[in-house]
Design goal:
Helix 2 runs parallel beside helix 3 and helix 6 runs parallel beside helix 7. The chain is built from 14 helices and 11 strands. It folds into 2 domains: 223 residues, Aldolase class I (TIM Barrel, Alpha-Beta Barrel); 76 residues, no CATH class. Helix content is 41%, strand content 15%. Strand 2, helix 3 and strand 3 form a beta-alpha-beta unit. The strands form 2 sheets. It has an 8-stranded parallel beta sheet. By secondary structure, the chain is an alpha/beta fold. The two termini are 32 Å apart.
Length: 321
Amino acid sequence: MKIKTNRISALFGIRYPIIQAGMVWCSGWKLASAVSNAGGLGLIGAGSMHPDTLQEHIRKCKRATTQPFGINVPLIYPQIEEIMQIIVEEKVAVVFTSAGNPKIWTTKLKAEGIKVAHVVSSSRFAVKCAEADVDAVVAEGFEAGGHNGREETTTFALIPQVRKAIDLPLIAAGGIGSGEAMAAAFALGAEGVQVGTRFALTEESSASGAFKQRCISLNEGDTVLSLKKLNPTRLIKNEFYQQVQQLEDRGATSEELRELLGRGRSKRGIFEGDLSEGELEIGQIASHIREIIPAGQVIEEMVDQYNRAIQRLSQTVIDNP
């Protein structure tokens, strides 16, 4: 049995409504092409790339897959104009934007025939996405790794609120790493899922081996939302996190926290594998993951789990009195 085509899979021209999140230092062309080849939508994470590096990854991805793939672009990126020009010139089919106002770029991208989705953390921002005429909305909950919304709303509390607020195709994100979680998100009104952590811990992810091995050893509660005075970020509890915690406990200013963070801290942790002083960003769902497998296998397992969950639930219908 296969997942039937819905608005998300039809919008992006993919077999399964499973999107790989565009994660900094994890989402290069190898991961994006592997996900797309397996029937999902792979995303190259532009947030950690210089413009010329992004162009190289786009071209390599084109050679590695004939299927649709996209780019995730944080709108606070300092060279945003150059990044968007490359995306247009390379005729990328899909762009997922985040960390900014979708009105700024949506119209321009759609005029070039590009499908646009935007990531939000609240129903209020989802409404703004509808006003900006995006093609789809990603509602990301508190469980997600990396940068998070300030609302701290969990995914399964957020999805039904966003579904009530807008009629656009809706993608659930945050804490989703299995087909059962996908079925639960669909029950609440989502039509697709964006998966980060599970794909970050695959063979094709560009994260360092040391980082991946640390993540698959995590237990429940080993990540925490931190750096709230700057940009809320879910981190693994390591030596760097302890330094952040000490500063926050004594009421440090944003400037003090920014000085501690410095530059390149996430690259140091995720890409270079400094498990002590690096910024180790990963989602809560990491504590459920115990092995590094190919991205294609992740999709196969999610689809199988989803279909089995739907079959099981169909046999437990509650009769009306």
